[in-house]
Amino acid sequence: EDKVVQSPLSLVVHEGDTVTLNCSYEVTNFRSLLWYKQEKKAPTFLFMLTSSGIEKKSGRLSSILDKKELFSILNITATQTGDSAVYLCAPCLSSNTGKLIFGQGTTLQVKP
Amino acid sequence: DGGITQSPKYLFRKEGQNVTLSCEQNLNHDAMYWYRQDPGQGLRLIYYSQIVNDFQKGDIAEGYSVSREKKESFPLTVTSAQKNPTAFYLCASTRPGATSGANVLTFGAGSRLTVL
C-alpha cells in the first residue's frame, strides 16, 4: 500500500526562524515528488523533484529529494507570517496518469 | 486567465440528498481529479479521468459518482450512499506525461459541503 508520512504534523515558530519539514514515502512506480502550499483553499505548487541530491530553490524556500532513503525535505529560512500555511508533500506515481498521493500535511504557524 | 472554477463554494444539504459539485477548467488539460480533504488527513483521491468519457476510481470512490462528457468539465455527485459527506472537496487538472512540467496539478478553490 502506498504511504506518505509528513512530520511534524504542526509547528509554531517566530518570524525569522528557520524550519525544516519532512516527507517520507513508500510508493510503487515513483515518478517525482511535489510540494504544495495551502493557505486557505487551493493548494499552490512550490516544487517538483525528480532527481536525488539536486536542491531546488525559490527565494527563502528550498527542497531536496533522496530517492535511496525515500524522503524529501522542505526548508524555509527567515520565516515570515505569510509563510503560515499547510504544506503538502505528494509523490507522483506514474507519468501516464499524473496520479498524486498526498501526505497529511504539516501545519506551520509563524508568529510575529 | 486560465484556471479551474469550482462551484458552489459553500453548500448545505440535508442527510439523504444527492448533491453535485461543478468543476470547469479552461487549461486544455486532459486529466482531471477530485480530492476530498478532511482535517488532519491530507487529500484523498475520489475519482480521476484521463480522457473524455473515461474515468477511474480513486482510493475513496464509494458513495460518489462522476461523469466526463466534455474535456473542460468533471462534475462530482455526492450520493446519499456516502456515509460521511461533510468535507472540503478539491478539483484539479493536469497534463500527464513525462515531459518537464507535466503532472503538476492545478487546483480549484474548493467546495465546502456540510450535511445537516
Structure description:
The complex is a heterodimer of chains A (112) and B (116). Chain A has 112 residues and is mostly beta strands. Chain A is 0% helix and 54% strand. Chain A contains no helices and 10 strands. Chain A has strands at residues 3-7, 10-14, 19-26, 32-38, 44-49, 56-58, 61-66, 71-76, 85-92, 106-111. Chain A has a 5-stranded antiparallel beta sheet, with no helix packed on it. A 5-stranded mixed beta sheet of chain A has the order 2-10-9-4-5, with no helix packed on it. Chain A is globular and about 45 Å long. Chain B is an all-beta fold and 116 residues long. Chain B has no helices and 11 strands. In chain B, strands 2, 4, 5, 6, 9, 10 and 11 form a 7-stranded mixed beta sheet that branches. Chain B has a 4-stranded antiparallel beta sheet with strand order 1-3-8-7, with no helix packed on it. The radius of gyration of chain B is 14 Å and the shape is globular. The N and C termini of chain B lie far apart (36 Å). At the A-B interface, strand 5 and strand 9 of A face strand 4, strand 5 and strand 10 of B.
